[in-house]
Amino acid sequence: MLQFLRNLPKIELHAHLNGSLNIDSIRELAAKVYGVQTKEFSTLCERFIKFEKGAKLDDCFEKFGFVHELTSTKEGLEYATELVIRDFAKDNVIYVELRTTPKANGNMSRRSYLDTVLGVIKNKSDLYKIKVKLLPSINRAEPVAVAEETVALAVELATIEPEIIVGIDFSGNPNQGNFKDFIPVLSKARNHGLKLAMHCAEVDNPVEIREMIRFGMSRCGHGTYLSDSGFEHMKEENIPIECCLTSNVKSGTVANIGAHHLKQLMATCAPKVLCTDDSGVFDTTLSDEFFLATESFGLTKSQCIALTMEAVEHAFATREEKLMLKMQIYKYTRLQNK
User: Fold this and answer.
1) pLDDT digits (tens, 9 = 90+) for 296-337
2) Catalytic residue flag (residue 321)
3) Residue 75 in 3-state DSSP?
4) Which of 82, 149, 202, 289 is catalytic?
5) What distances in angstroms separate CA 18 from CA 55, 140, 242, 255, one per listed residue?
6) Taking the model in full, what pTM does it have?
7) In this structure, how many other beta carbons lie within 10 angstroms of the beta carbon of residue 169?
8) What is the pLDDT of residues 99-108, one digit of tens each?
9) Domains of the chain, with CATH numbers?
10) Longest dimension (CA), the chain
């Protein structure tokens, strides 16, 4: 089964750029760009993917500072973006939507940050034979003014690269910031044709969950604390829940894999997609996530294929792109049946 899943052409719809650098790629990035191969650096790498028993969601966000330092220069960001694209392609991911929060520092403005990531996507996607989209991220822990700048940049750049910049990601530490403050800027993004992939119900906050459901979204990130009525709403509106099994278990938002809501979503035929979230931080791949689902919930090969086809339907891709993706998946499955 694992080999079948590794070779299956896959669709990744929830992947944060900096969190998707695995340990080997982080070492490769550090060696090429910074020449860092010290014992201290190796210890930092080990801590990056180590989760203590009883880890909480806040602990996960503390880990990102390590990678953000490595991608704080144009050269570092360029190579990191290429490595992430390469590693998804190695796992036979044929379509990926990358999310990243534009960062401003002494080396880059938010615009140059996005320009750098866009440049790599344009120059390297064909090399690795993978279709890559970009969702600039609003970090809810930052001021609304930063979100306004991010959306303004996304709207502008989407007119230049409409087949790459296709949406906005709303994420960041769900224990920080107030969703209501971001409604105007999210509305602006939606009014300009950008899809909204929003982290929703990642923590138990019923008031905010109701606000987010009322506002609406194109896809729901995690949905861990949705009520039965929340799940029913997503089903009625055909809003898929981006399920990230390893992420949810390691960050402590579900008690264990057996308690994950993917089982409920499968049983009720509610819209869902299987994703990695941060494949580097959580030391996983999309193939591993599918295998975990087969081991935990008894998914068959046919169900894994169906989940993959479902992901195509919910991708922020054009009709022509979706047709090409389905043809690639169908070609593989047809060969498996011979």
Assistant:
1) 999 999 999 999 999 999 999 999 999 999 999 999 988 776
2) no
3) helix
4) 202
5) 20, 17, 19, 26
6) 0.94
7) 27
8) 999 999 999 9
9) 2-336 (3.20.20.140)
10) 57
